[in-house]
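Colleagues,

Please find the record for the two-part complex below.
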Amino acid sequence: MIKINKILILLLMIIFNVVIFTACWDNKDLTEKAFVTAVGVDRTAEGKVQLTLQIVKPTVMKAGEQGIPEEEAFWVFTTVGDTIFEAAKNQMTAVNRKPFYNHADLMVIGEEFARDGIMDALDFWERNHEPRLGSDIIIAKGTTAEEILKAKSDMEKIPSLHIKSILKNSKELAKVKKVTIIDVLKQLIQPGVSPAIGAIEIVEKEDLQKIEDMKIDSTAVFKGDKLVGWLNAAQTRGLLFIQNEVRNAVYNVDNPLNKNKKVAIEILDSNGKIDAQIVEWKLILSIKIDAVGNIADQQGKGDLTTKETFKKLSRDVENAIKTDIKDVLSIAQKEYKSDIFGFGEVMYRRHFEYWKQIKDDWADIFSNASIEIDVNVKIRGTGIIGKPSEVR
Amino acid sequence: MFRYFTRLLNYFILKAKNDNIRDFKHYSNIEKIPSSIKSVRDKLEEIFSDSVDFVLREIALGENSEVKILIAFIDGLTNKQTVNTNILRALMIESRISKLNREVNRETIIDILKENLLSIGDLEIIDDFKQTVEKILSGDTVIYIDGKNVAFKADTKGWETRGVEEPETEAVVRGPREGFTETLRTNTALLRRKIRNPKLKFEMIKLGEQTNTDVCICYIKGIANPDIIETVKRRLKRIKIDAILESGYIEEFIEDEPFSLFPTVGNSEKPDVVAAKLLEGRIAILCDGTPFALTVPYLLIETIQASEDYYSRPYFASLARFARMLAFFASVILPSFYVALISFHADVIPFKLLLSVSASREGLPTSAFTESLLMVLSFELLREAGVRMPRPIGQAVSIVGALVLGEAAVKAGLVSNLMIMVTALTAISSFVVPPMGGTIPILRVVFLIAANILGFMGLFLSIFVVLIHLCSLRSFGVPYTSPIAPLDGMGLKDSIVRFPIWSMITRPKDITSNKNKKVEHRMKISHIKKED
């Protein structure tokens, strides 16, 4: 009896293990793998899919440690196929090692491809066990993914790491809409919301393209999975305020005591909420932002630490934020007719019966809806000094 | 399955032993000492023929030299001074000076020898001839008397011994530096000096048919569990072997699971360690001719306990125990963990680390498994060489080890830098837990192979197998993983965290007899209160 129990426990443990450790069934040494750090997807002129891989060369990384960074530490490789999977397999005929997608933490999608629909690229990502759904996704504005991935970096040995750090830093300053593949997939399958994805563009076209010459501050607006247009930097910030993704932002407003001089207000925390209500069979959409700020920098003279000036400053910041929000609302409503904010999602959750009736016309309803905007900014502190030091 | 085979084997071993036990009657026959000194002499000379160290001396006592006495001892095993002054001088000169010689005749000789002449502390009258031979062999002097069927045994043991030195295997920063020696009597004295209590018992038993080695069972009556004492005695008595040269011989006979990788009998070279274990209710087995004393029952938790834990303050002691536990896991798992990571689960290595790891592995002809095996085995070679090498050559070994296996292996492109680090960490860790010295290297290789076949899954499967085995182990009836499983709340105070000594008011539950515990408990508490 005890023996049977023991065997049962052992079996249970084996099953438990099999369930837990289902990752990779493959004994492959590191030297047999090619580490893909970034993947680019483009549409060729013939309508085929072009896959670009940025692969690390460990040998050069090693040489670099000894102080002779002669070569580039990465290698960009392109293949073409009817599907991404075919393109990925075509890669194997030229690359001597098995591409290893686990650390492909960046996906760049060319503008052409995005206009046709990004779902064609994401299915491969969802279906395969190697690529990570948590990797960042970014759209190449006005260019191809290949161009972006071929660019070199002075700061990092591997350019994709450079792009990733920029994304991370810009997100902290509310300058880019940083999304991961799983975020995009979630928004795609959710009724009533369209994704907005950060975009990268080349500012100066040069022979030897560098990441430093690129700008990551605009946002690609999608309708369904198709790219429809772009948001500029201020509109992007408005979008982030609405989606409650602002952790830190800077607004410059006029110094109330000294004309033609500016005061920088640092937004330290922001709480954004969107709401959809039905009052007397009328749809009312509303946005409410509660933010907290600090005086971070003051130009010109004057003691700003009074109640009145605080009120004046916060009103100015509120207006500035409102302008950004209005800006992004109008372009999304009128020009792109795409609900990137998720009002439809709120409808779907709160007023499902109503949503069922209007879901087919939602794009029109959204673009014609009036939206109430309520911004509330509180200025809390002035840094470690009160009034500025006076020059005598 | 494994257990089944073990039991089957045990059955045959025990059966063979039981068959042998019947023969013991033969030995218990008493052989009378011949009354004629001539035949005694003949017999002894026959037994000790061709032994140059055997000394026979015949003296005549009495007015007319009518009582003949035969003195037998082995030169080298006896203290010369004692033999010369307390026996020979007393018999030959002092008897004459004191005129006792005149009173000696065949009737009075025994009383006179016992009460007036032989000034020896440990004097005994023996009537078994076989026993006298044994006594001679163990360093006593035997005095045969003509016309009597008895002989005197005088304790004159005394031979060249190593002094009480600091043991090399169990060095301490703080704590007693004395260690056991090869002489059993010295060892019992060392213990007796630590525990001045008549309840400390030393029971002797002779083992080894050729060597007749003295083996001593020590325990504290009233603390040690009588059942375990009985078990120890029973298992010791069953031993039938030619020679006991070291306590390791005994260890193999009395283990609960002879085929287990884990030790179920502990050993120590330090009297303070053994004394502490006796006070916890354990039983020690001292063996003549070796400084290593065995202690039973031996539990898994004892592998991470050291005597110094109790001599230093609890915080540091707990930290040290934690480090030992970590070292145990590290030295077993590290190489296999490395192989599993590199060969199977590169996705869980952070990207930047992965880059540097793969850069260091770039261009290596060996797989992670091959290089791990290579390094693990070559470390075993180095370690073995370090132990066996004569001291003066030791330096050469360390240079070869450090340079050839460390630097050159990397330069030659055989192993990666990281592997050297893994090996070094593994090696250092394996020295932190000395009692597991025989277990760790084997487990390490087994885990390594498992990790190479199934990655983390293989590694964890093998860990589970080892855990199951550990839970099934017992040492003299005490669960091996106690006090963690089965859980003993009070016992946990002296497990991974060492609580202050004043808070340890109970003895280990599974080891001591339960009846006894409560009394001790109350006594100890009252003692603490009085102190306050």
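The mean pLDDT of chain A is 87.

Comments are welcome before we finalize the supplementary table.
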